[in-house]
């Protein structure tokens, strides 16, 4: 039987999970990525891999042992601090056991998948403009340079602002009213020892209403700092802040967090990197589409959610599920239907659970990471069809 022509748009970890799992079973796949190389930008912070989602996807991809060699179980530590006194008021230690969700740098995880693919699988510097179903079960993938290629299946794994989504849905992400401004401390153990001790081995968070300051230890002594702000999408324009002016952004953040404990403010004062503005967006809970032969979606392109620790895990599980459906079904369209029938209810349940957790975090200082994982897992399992 001839292997179907499959294109994955987006070389994030969801799309790469799909590509790796397809190749593991001898299927052909091409990944198109708009970035020009694997190192075109930093890949974000730590990810905790949940047993039934991210870890399950790693097993399907045949990379679980390699993941274990890079993962940091101690990174599951969570500390909650009083924002005004700096005192620790909550401390969750890694528990190990069946619910263990070790952390790994997103960049390391992405590199693990990239290294596992056949040479030439990823075509770098090939931004997609969209996909057009042809009506005969295939799809035409359009690129921003005006060229096109035909595929039996185009998989949109291209994130929140997916160029493939419009082939299936008119939905667009909506701003939540919250923004995260990210910065970092490099070589923290040596250059910023007090902050390194404050953060510990995992994540530290302090909250006052919807204003939050958190920090997360990555590998190599690197600490990522996240300032969570409630306000309009163009908060910086309203405040007269040039996002390219690090000193102006730093000054504004210190004003927002005025009155917070000095140990927390030092995370902003001493930051080494620039500041990255990340307004948070979501797709509607229960986002779905009528099946269209030749095109489907996975990850944030299908179900963009609030950041409650499940998005990357679900994207990976989506990729593994789609690939395995292609392997076990004789007809490609039947495989895609089976995947969507499994993925969409799971995504709707996860999106609702994330919304519930986000509402809880707005009311409480810190939500237990272990409790959040259990809640997400239970909601997702309840939504999955039998078999």
From TrEMBL:
Its EC number is 1.14.13.-. It catalyses: a tetracycline + NADPH + O2 + H(+) = an 11a-hydroxytetracycline + NADP(+) + H2O. It is an enzyme of class 1 (oxidoreductase). One of its GO terms (biological process) is response to antibiotic. NADPH binds at residue 41. Keywords: Cytoplasm, FAD, Flavoprotein, Monooxygenase, NADP, Nucleotide-binding, Oxidoreductase. Residues 6-217, 295-352 form the FAD-binding domain. An FAD-requiring monooxygenase active on some tetracycline antibiotic derivatives, which leads to their inactivation. Hydroxylates carbon 11a of tetracycline and some analogs. Consists of an N-terminal FAD-binding domain with a Rossman fold and a C-terminal substrate-binding domain. This is Flavin-dependent monooxygenase. The lineage of its organism: Bacteria, Bacillati, Actinomycetota, Actinomycetes, Streptosporangiales.
């Amino acid at each position: 039987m001839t292997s179907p022509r499959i294109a994955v748009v987006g070389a994030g970890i969801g799309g790469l999970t799909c590509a790796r799992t397809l190749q593991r079973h001898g299927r052909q796949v091409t990944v198109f990525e708009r970035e020009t190389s694997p190192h075109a930008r930093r890949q974000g912070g730590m990810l905790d891999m949940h047993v039934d989602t991210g870890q399950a996807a790693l097993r399907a991809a045949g990379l679980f042992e390699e993941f274990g060699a890079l993962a940091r179980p101690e990174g599951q530590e969570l500390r909650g601090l009083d924002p005004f006194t700096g005192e620790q008021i909550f401390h969750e230690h890694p528990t190990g056991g069946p619910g263990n969700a070790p952390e790994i740098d997103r960049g390391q995880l992405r590199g693990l998948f990239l290294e596992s693919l056949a040479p030439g699988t990823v075509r770098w510097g090939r931004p997609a403009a969209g996909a057009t179903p042809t009506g005969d079960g295939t799809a035409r993938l359009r690129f921003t340079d005006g060229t096109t290629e035909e595929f039996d299946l185009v998989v949109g794994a291209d994130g929140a602002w997916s160029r493939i989504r419009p082939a299936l849905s008119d939905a667009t992400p909506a701003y939540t009213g919250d923004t995260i401004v990210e910065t970092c401390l490099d070589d923290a153990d040596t250059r910023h020892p007090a902050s390194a001790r404050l953060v510990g081995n995992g994540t530290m968070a302090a909250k006052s209403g919807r204003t939050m300051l958190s920090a997360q230890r990555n590998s190599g002594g690197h600490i990522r700092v996240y300032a969570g702000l409630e306000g309009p999408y163009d908060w910086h324009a309203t405040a007269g802040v040039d996002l390219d002016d690090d000193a102006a952004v730093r000054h504004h953040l210190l004003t927002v967090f005025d009155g917070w404990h000095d140990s927390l403010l030092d995370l902003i004062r001493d930051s080494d990197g620039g500041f990255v503005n990340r307004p948070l967006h979501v797709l509607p809970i229960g986002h779905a589409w009528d099946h269209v032969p030749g095109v489907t979606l996975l990850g944030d392109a299908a179900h963009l959610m609030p950041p409650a620790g499940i998005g990357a895990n679900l994207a990976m599980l989506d990729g593994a599920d789609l690939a395995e459906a292609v392997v076990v079904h004789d007809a490609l369209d039947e495989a895609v239907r089976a995947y969507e029938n499994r993925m969409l209810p799971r995504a709707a349940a996860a999106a609702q659970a994330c919304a519930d957790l986000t509402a809880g975090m707005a009311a409480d200082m810190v939500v237990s990471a272990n409790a959040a994982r259990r809640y997400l897992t239970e909601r997702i399992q309840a939504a999955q069809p039998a078999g």
